[in-house]
Fold:
Amino acid sequence: MLGALGAFAFFGGDLWPWHLVFGLTLAVVFGAAGGLILAAQYAVSDTFTAPLVYRHLARTGALPAELGRFLAWADDRILLRRTGKDYQFVHRLYRDWWAEQYPSRDST
Structure:
């Protein structure tokens, strides 16, 4: 819309089809550029968010620094069970005890 108004003012108001074409061209160019920026932002956030969050949690002590070794240790001692890429608590009481230690913010 602003591109069409700018073209209309730039060309003196006489060129009706030209300001329409100019405005539509600007809309397509800026729309495509905005779409590419959002797509790149989405791709980068999926790729880099998990490692950044992990590093922050490890630095603050909320997670072990070597999470893979810790999960393997817990799996060997049957505290956790590995199912594919996921880990599950084997014992319900153990899971419930950890849940009580760190209550959810939603359960206020």
User: Anything to note?
Assistant: The chain is about 70% helix and 5% strand. The mean pLDDT is 80. Strands lie at 80-83, 86-89. Residues 1-63 form one domain.
